[in-house]
């Protein structure tokens, strides 16, 4: 590995002298390291001419693979360090809408309470492989199968119902769902039908409809007076509490939960425990509107 490192730097600079300077080695040590590799594989890697060296085709091939390998090793070592229990970083994967509408507004509080622990937030939804995606924990809606080797911590149950601004409800829809502009999300296309069936509103139909690529956009459109969307807690909990949105028909259980996923390790990482405890505390302070 030492010889390959010396080769990579020499090949990158196409100079043994500059490689020696970067690695704090002698010119002779770099030359011997390269010669060791060339002897091992039986092929010259440099064209040596007038006290200069130039990579040949074999050297270019080896440089590409060596660079990729050394980069991969560096990244792996960095990931191991970041996910060690003593690391000052905790990598959290969270559903995008939940992250933007509930978690991110609260992370300032976490930083004040635990300034020594930095949250590296990744936004993603659905199934996750914590190891391959280099995440310590994930916050997910339970609409997919969870592997048996994951530790599952209950976060909160989901409630859902139509949400809009008070102005829109009274002025534009005239308090009638049949006269309203319904807002849909392509990531949850059945949200309206599921709510209608649960709340016994099977016969209501929209005046017109509009579709958005993501749940977050539909909720933002409702907040901007564009119509009525199906909102869910905890995503709209802050909006309902601060009366940015209202829920004219209340909220109904969807049958899904939000959970915190971590690896099922008997020696639980104290960083994970700290963050989970903080999440549960924040959830307990959240106003539930049904």
From TrEMBL:
Pfam families: HTH_1, LysR_substrate. Keywords: DNA-binding, Transcription, Transcription regulation. InterPro entries: LysR-type_TF_proteobact-type, LysR_HTH_N, LysR_subst-bd, WH-like_DNA-bd_sf, WH_DNA-bd_sf. PROSITE patterns: HTH_LYSR. One of its GO terms (molecular function) is sequence-specific DNA binding. It comes from the Bacteria. Transmembrane segments: none annotated. Residues 1-56 form the HTH lysR-type domain. One of its GO terms (biological process) is DNA-templated transcription. Belongs to the LysR transcriptional regulatory family. This is LysR family transcriptional regulator. It comes from Marinomonas ushuaiensis DSM 15871.
């Amino acid at each position: 590995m030492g010889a390959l490192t010396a080769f990579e730097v020499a090949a990158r600079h196409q100079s043994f002298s500059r490689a020696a300077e970067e690695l704090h080695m002698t010119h002779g040590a770099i030359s011997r390291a390269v010669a060791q590799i060339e002897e091992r594989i039986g092929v010259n890697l440099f064209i040596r001419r007038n006290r200069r060296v130039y990579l040949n085709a074999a050297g270019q091939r080896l440089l590409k693979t060596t660079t990729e390998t050394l980069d991969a090793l560096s990244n792996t070592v960095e990931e191991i360090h970041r996910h060690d229990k003593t690391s000052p970083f905790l990598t959290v994967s969270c559903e995008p809408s939940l992250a933007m509408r509930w978690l991110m507004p609260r992370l300032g509080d976490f930083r004040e309470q635990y300034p020594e622990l930095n949250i590296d937030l990744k936004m993603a939804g659905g199934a996750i492989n914590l190891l391959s995606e280099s995440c310590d924990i994930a916050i997910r809606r339970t609409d997919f199968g969870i592997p048996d080797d994951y530790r599952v911590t209950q976060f909160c149950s989901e409630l859902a119902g139509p949400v809009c601004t008070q102005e829109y409800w009274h002025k534009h829809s005239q308090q009638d769902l049949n006269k309203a502009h319904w807002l849909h999300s392509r990531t949850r296309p059945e949200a309206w039908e599921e709510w209608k069936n649960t709340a016994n509103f099977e016969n209501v139909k929209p005046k017109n409809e509009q579709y958005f690529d993501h749940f977050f956009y539909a909720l933002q459109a409702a907040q901007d007076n564009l119509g009525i969307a199906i909102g869910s807690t905890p995503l709209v909990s802050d909006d309902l509490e601060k009366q940015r949105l209202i829920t004219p028909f209340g909220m109904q259980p969807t049958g899904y939960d939000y959970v915190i996923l971590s690896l099922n390790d008997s020696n639980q990482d104290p960083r994970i425990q700290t963050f989970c405890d903080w999440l549960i505390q924040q959830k307990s302070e959240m106003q539930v509107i049904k």
